[in-house]
Specification:
Elements: H1 3-18, E1 26-30, E2 36-42, E3 45-51, H2 58-73, E4 91-93, E5 96-102, H3 114-129, H4 146-157, H5 162-173, E6 183-186, E7 195-198, E8 201-205, E9 212-215, H6 216-227, H7 236-247, H8 254-258, H9 260-282, H10 294-297
Antiparallel strand pairs: 1-2, 2-3, 3-5, 4-5, 6-9, 7-8
Helix pairs in contact: 3-7, 4-5, 4-9, 6-9
């Protein structure tokens, strides 16, 4: 075992001990971009340990748990965080913040088909119906201030990049504003890796770091900006199936339909600037630093979405 692996095993053992899970007997890296996620086997079972790397405070994670509790009250399919004997859900020591969940047995899906997309659309709409009364506000990347502030930060720190100026130009052409459309609880980061499936059935949505209150249309569209391009080009059938599943529960207003293209571009810009800052500023990563260029490589700024007539 390498020194890096030994250090990680020691860290994971501390986290497992904090949550009373027993000592780790085996571990492996789990999917995830924003955090360092690990599947951990202990004598008591198999767990997902999330070592938080994003700019989230312990208070953010506690608020996230309040949202998950609300979803549980409405029998929404998701996972909840484990607590230790003192009722604590966040491990924090030596600049490491982590949370734990029971692993749900599921089948990995790298690219959704129309049937899975329809299920995701229906379930997202069901989320948007859950009331957020009395839930605290929480910072997330779909709130109105995130995109303009992030664009400004990126241009300040990387003034030489012409691409950032192009993103700013696109942003200023948009008439859509997240605070001028119907609000709901939003997931904020829904794509195939954040949905668990088993035998063709949706089991749960996971990874709720960006949960909060926001525009339901933007939540729908930011999902589109990832889901419909997982094969490298726009998948019209996945798009139509996702929308069909959504409208089984919620029909967009005429104003929302008019702003669909603008909300889609707003979502694509948000994912792009998050990717840029995450891999070039907050956590520089030579292997991933150009992932933000997907905005141009797959033509998100030129895509014409099919008309929604009903």
């Amino acid at each position: 075992m390498s020194l890096e692996s030994k250090v990680m095993q020691e860290t994971l053992n501390k986290i497992c001990s904090f949550f009373d899970l027993g000592e780790s007997t085996d571990f492996s890296r789990a999917p995830g971009d924003a955090n360092a996620n690990y599947f951990v086997q202990t004598p008591s079972g198999r767990y997902l340990i999330k070592i938080i790397q994003e700019q989230h405070s312990e208070e953010d994670k506690k608020i996230e748990q309040q949202y998950l509790q609300r979803l549980k009250e409405y029998s929404f399919p998701t996972t909840s965080y484990l607590s230790n004997s003192q009722g604590e859900i966040v491990y924090q020591e030596d600049k490491v913040m982590a949370m734990a969940q029971k692993e749900i047995s599921s089948t990995p899906v790298n690219q959704v088909n129309s049937e899975l997309a329809k299920q995701m659309g229906t379930t997202l709409a069901q989320l948007h119906q859950i009331p957020f009364t009395n839930l605290p506000t929480k910072k997330h990347w779909l709130e109105p201030s995130y995109l303009p502030q992030s664009l400004a930060l990126a241009q300040k720190e990387f003034p030489q990049l012409i691409e950032l100026k192009e993103l700013e130009k696109v942003f200023h052409t948009l008439s859509f504003s997240p605070d001028n459309s119907p609000q709901s609880i939003v997931h904020g980061d829904l794509y195939s890796s954040n949905a668990l499936f088993q035998k063709g059935k949706l089991l749960a949505f996971i990874d709720w770091e960006e949960v909060g209150q926001g525009s339901r249309l933007l939540d729908f569209c930011i999902t589109l900006s990832e889901l419909c391009w997982e094969g490298g080009s726009f998948d019209k059938e996945v798009y139509l199936a996702f929308y069909e599943g959504y409208r089984k529960v919620i029909c967009f207003t005429e104003e929302e339909k008019e702003h669909l293209k603008g909300a889609f571009l707003y979502g694509a810009l948000t994912r792009t600037i998050w990717r840029f800052l995450h891999t070039n500023y907050y956590y520089p990563d030579e292997k991933k630093k150009n992932r933000y260029r997907l905005f141009w490589e797959i033509g998100l700024n030129k895509q014409q979405l099919p008309e929604i007539n009903s």
